[in-house]
Amino acid sequence: MEDQLVLAVATTLATKGAEAFGAGAREAIGSLVRMVRNRFGSGTPESAVLDGAVEHPQEQWRHTALASVLADVMARDPQFARALNDEWRRLTGSSVSDAQGQVTNHFSGTAEKVVQARDVRGDIVF
User: Fold this and answer.
1) What is the pLDDT of residue 20?
2) Are 13 and 66 in contact, with CB atoms under 8 Å apart?
3) How many Å apart are CA 75 and CA 73, to the nearest integer?
4) Helices H, strands E: what count in the chain?
5) How far lies 90's CA from each of 16, 38, 42, 48, 107, in Å?
6) How far apart are the C-alpha atoms of 107 and 92, rounded to whole Å?
């Protein structure tokens, strides 16, 4: 489920993810941002995509673009992919790629009502 990991990390990076992890998360998210920035380098097309996503977190297409770039880098660099997964596991307490049959919900943003569920049988009524 590496695609889920990539999308979760990209969204967290783009939205600065602090609200997804609660108080004191800025330091933890900072380590994730530093890891990705260090791997992407400075002045690269990848770093430009990351900067655009961080500067415009409300633009969902930028999250998708960042996820695509991140997936590409992870495919070319398995050591980075493992390190990123390990860092994500440290931050969230779970590994998306290891969670076969499990559900790891992440929500970032604002909404009046949010449902995060698995195997819903029957109706959901607000």
Assistant:
1) 47
2) yes
3) 5
4) 6, 0
5) 17, 18, 26, 27, 18
6) 13
